[in-house]
Design a protein that fits this description.
The chain has helices at residues 23-31, 68-75, 108-118, 123-137, 152-164, 182-197, 209-215, 233-254, 433-439; strands at 8-19, 40-52, 57-61, 83-88, 92-95, 170-174, 201-205, 218-223, 226-231, 282-284, 289-297, 306-307, 312-321, 328-336, 341-346, 362-370, 373-374, 378-388, 393-407, 418-419. By secondary structure, it is of the alpha/beta class. It folds into two domains: 8-242, P-loop containing nucleotide triphosphate hydrolases (Rossmann fold), CATH 3.40.50.300; 272-411, Coagulation Factor XIII, Chain A, domain 1 (Distorted Sandwich).
């Protein structure tokens, strides 16, 4: 790739479509275009300006209809922009809509050769890469069957295998991996990491916050066709998730679930309150209840700055209500230094159904945790209070990364994120439940 300073550059990139109130209006516009130039306009994307650097993994998030796919199709050259321009430097492979670019009447093998030739790869070179593509896709004899007979999972397997084996300098992936099974998706993510290490520019659209935090160098948040935020993945994803929770809370407020006849409890004071929050990276919620303190201690209340494998720790969360909370849920999130959620739980998930809380109530919830054997690194606990159920709730207060702590090292290395308790047996027999039952009548 030539040294240009960027792989993709968008300047005021916009895409609009005429919007008609009825089929009759659409027909009239087609017949009398010059007489009715004032059709309403829908802007799928408006004034998007950004650069993507060579070798960067650039993630894009946003709810459905925010303009993500429109943006990718203009980068890929499939859609012409209405306004602005986009420059692309380097060979680009795109995994967009499921099956896009495949002729349904052709076999998988024929489509591989067709797609490769469109990317400028010689047939002889494609034939030499075909065994690797076939092995990665793992669709067996279906490779020589028409693509129209494929399941959605088989389509994405073949499409991804082609995209990553044509040596792209820029790879675009648009949510297609969500269709694949977990085994294939993990293999795809390993391949994405491999391409990332080799300097491939990756443009990745996903609804998975964990994926963005794990692989993203930068993240762009699209909302209603416009850029809301672009920058470091952790704050952008946090703000995006916060906005989605706020919108969900509005929906829950407009469509409240049926509540039991149990009224709020009497105003009470917690016997022990945590004083203050060590850190607030970001917080959101309707403030119907607020977190007033978060602490990480041992079982006797001594603050912890270091976690030890298999040791007990207590995460204390103190809350004050500013209105009646009918179905309180208190929870936490444990993240690593990359912002990846390692553990998430709450009172309801752990089988504790809290009683309703009256306005002005204070409560301290203690999460007694047995720490797993995590790799030595920095970790952070976030805390939250919500009103509702696991399926439908209204976020009252969510404090990102309220308390940080380090995991102490051990004399044995940790491979991956954590070490699972393990007992090893060699050449052993497993008891047969059927025979055991027979022996005991």
């Amino acid at each position: 790739m030539e040294t240009t300073g960027f792989s993709v550059r968008a300047s005021g990139l916009s895409k609009s479509y005429p919007a008609f109130s009825s089929p009759t209006e659409r027909l009239r516009q087609l017949l009398f275009r010059s007489r009715r130039p004032d059709a309403k306009t829908f802007w799928a994307l408006r004034d998007a300006t950004f650069d993507i650097q060579p070798g960067e993994t650039f993630c894009i998030v946003g709810q459905n209809g925010s303009g993500k796919s429109t943006l990718l199709q203009m980068i890929a050259g499939i859609l012409p922009p209405t306004g602005g321009n986009v420059e692309v430097n380097g060979k680009l492979a795109a995994l967009l809509e499921l099956g896009a670019g495949f002729n349904p009447e052709f076999t998988g093998r024929e489509n591989v050769l067709l797609n490769g030739s469109l990317l400028g790869i010689r047939r002889s070179e494609l034939l030499s890469r075909l065994p690797s593509i076939e092995a990665f896709a793992e669709i067996g004899a279906f490779l020589d069957q028409p693509v129209k007979t494929y399941s959605s999972g088989m389509l994405v397997r073949l499409a991804f295998a082609v995209a990553v084996h044509v040596d792209p300098q820029i790879l675009i992936v648009d949510e297609a991996l969500a269709v694949g099974d977990i085994y294939f998706r993990q293999r795809c993510m390993r391949k994405v990491h491999e391409l990332k290490r080799h300097g491939t520019t990756i443009i990745y659209v996903t609804h998975s916050a964990a994926d963005v935090r794990a692989i993203g160098d930068r993240c762009l948040w699209l909302d209603a066709g416009q850029i809301r935020e672009c920058g470091d993945p952790e704050p952008v994803v946090s703000h995006y998730l916060a906005e989605m929770l706020v919108r969900d809370s509005r929906y829950v407020h407009a469509h409240p679930p049926a509540l039991t006849a149990l009224g709020p409890s009497a105003n009470v004071e917690a016997p022990e309150l945590v004083d203050g929050i060590p850190n607030v990276d970001h917080r959101w919620g309707n403030q119907g209840a607020e977190i007033i303190g978060v602490a990480l201690t041992n079982s006797t209340g001594k603050p912890l700055a270091t976690l030890n494998p298999h040791a007990e720790a207590v995460l204390r969360v103190s809350i004050r209500t500013n209105k009646a909370i009918i179905q309180p849920i208190v929870g936490y999130v444990l993240r690593n230094h990359l912002g990846i959620d390692l553990a998430v739980s709450n009172t309801l998930r752990e089988g504790i159904r809290m009683t309703p809380l009256a306005d002005g109530t204070t409560v301290t919830v203690d999460f007694h945790l047995t720490m797993p054997e995590l790799y030595p690194a920095a970790f952070a606990f976030s805390a939250a209070i919500a009103d509702g159920t696991l399926e439908k709730y209204e976020m009252c207060d969510f404090v990102e990364n309220a308390v940080s702590v380090h995991m102490a090292g051990t004399d044995k290395p940790i491979y991956g994120y954590l070490h699972l308790p393990c007992r090893i047996g060699i050449n052993q027999r497993l008891s047969n439940p059927t025979s055991q039952e027979a022996l005991h009548g």
